[in-house]
Amino acid sequence: MAHSAPRYASNEGAIDAVKAAIGGAFVDAVDAVGEVSVSVERASLATALTALRDAGYQQLMEIAGVDYPDRPERFEVCYHLLSVTKNHRLRIKVSTDEATPVPSVTDIWPVAGWLEREVFDMYGVLFEGNTDLRRILTDYGFTGHPQRKDFPLTGYVELRWSETEKRVVYEPVELAQDFRTFDFESPWEGAQYALPGDEKAAEAPGAPTPAPAPASEAPPPKPKTTDTPAETGAGKAANKKAAQKQSAGSPAQRKTNSPAQRKTGKVAPRSPAKPKRKGA
User: Fold this and answer.
1) Other CB atoms closer than 10 Å to residue 181's CB: what's the count?
2) C-beta neighbour count of 22 within 10 angstroms
3) Which residues pair with 83 in a beta bridge?
4) Is 84 a member of any domain?
């Protein structure tokens, strides 16, 4: 029986449908690695997203920022849309710089308020129309935007609560990275340069296979975990005690034998047992 969930929709015809829906706001589109990315005019962003929402892309899943320092408009703001009815995803992109704001889409999707604050905090992108554009991830009084490619690794302070001093303290930021390289390459395609530590792989291709042991060599003895009673001496003591009891005889024999008989070693014969009376 077929599953009730819709199949993942193909990208065939998706760009034409988006272009027809948003009209003059369309700038460019790319279909790569199974994803459709559409660039739109910044001023017409709210109109384009409203049209796409009405065309079947009901949910705004994410707003992400990208920094390209060499471009005049260095920031890209990416809106990831999901169509529940078509089971299809779409990425809408706009470009901006440090001073030009991007229209807010909080009137279309209220969840955009949180997502726009995150992009503002990490990249410094301004959103016109967002009434609560505050930092959301960094500390109070933080200076700078950590996701920018030119954000320095040192020179800033961080805020934390000191349990020893019982107050809020400011300390210099210490990052573990020694350097950063931004080549915008896919991580699964592999970098075109040697990463630190790769030279060791060329020097030592692998550990040698251990040689098999000679056939004449005897296997090592197994470790001894427990001892038998005979090895510990407990068995000898028990046997000696049992022999002494047997040589002494039963209590009845000890009572009937005289001292002279016990001295000479002659033991009187035991009397036969009396038969039991009936009814006893």
Assistant:
1) 8
2) 23
3) 88
4) yes
